[in-house]
Amino acid sequence: MNNQKKNAVIVSLTDDVSEIKQLAESLDYCIVETFIQHRKTPDVNSYVGSGKVKEIKEFIENYDDDIDLIIVDGKLKPSQWFILEKKLNVNVYDRLRLILAIFRDRADRKEAKLQVRLAELQYEKPFVRELIHRARGGEHPGLMAGGEYQVDDYFEIIKKQTKKVREDLNKIRDERELHRQHRHIGGFFLVSLAGYTNAGKSSLLNLLSGGKVKVEKRLFSTLSTTTRKMREKNVPILLTDTVGFIENLPAWIVNAFHSTLEELETADIVLLVVDCSDCEELFGRKLNTAMSELIDLDVISPVIIVLNKIDLISEDELLSKLKYLDSLGFLVDHKVVSVSVSERKNIDDLLDVVYESLPDISCLTLYLPNSEETQSFISWLYRKTHVCSISYDEIVKVDIKCNSYIFEKITSMCRKLKGKIVN
Question: What is the pTM of this model?
Answer without folding.
Answer: 0.73
